[in-house]
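anyone else get weird line breaks when pasting these?? whatever heres mine. first is seq + tokens for prot A
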Amino acid sequence: MNYTLEQARILTGLTQVEMAKKMGMSEKTYIQYEKYRRIFRMDQAFKFVENVDVPMNTIIFFPGQLQNFRSQSEMSICV
């Protein structure tokens, strides 16, 4: 199963404010990452993974992956 940044954060039980603090950025900036308006650099992605209990290869870090994830989810709902 793949998880969006938001889903991975929620599974860990962190709020956006708490995650932003752990990531060393403002809440506004973090929200832009979670909405895929910004893309994490590799060091930021590793820091994100350290703060969530989700394997890196199951987290959707790029908007293109998100589009594919949504398409597959929509297809499985229709079947």
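and prot B, same format (seq, then tokens)
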Amino acid sequence: MEKTMKCLRCGQTLKFLRRENLQLGKTGWITGDWGNLLAGALDVAILQCSGCGKLEFFKGDAFEEQDEGPAGDLAQVTCPNCGVRYDCDYPKCPVCGTENTIF
């Protein structure tokens, strides 16, 4: 499933640029780069507006297809607001917070 999104500034289509790991942490005066080494990284998907060049960041796996899990996994629902699939026992969408209508 390919998701198409529009830029909030100019209305042009956002295009997938790449998936990247952004370094977390900071450099300290005494500790140097140890904070960066221990903090880890954040997996993000980067989209770019074809009109104004604005970059939008999303959770890294937000644009991957969701597999149908093996038998025995919880049933999943699709969020009517953002289209993300999540386990049906969640009261809200974990991405946008829309209420789960099954409850």
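btw re prot B: The helical segments are 34-39. Residues 66-72 have pLDDT under 50 and may be disordered.
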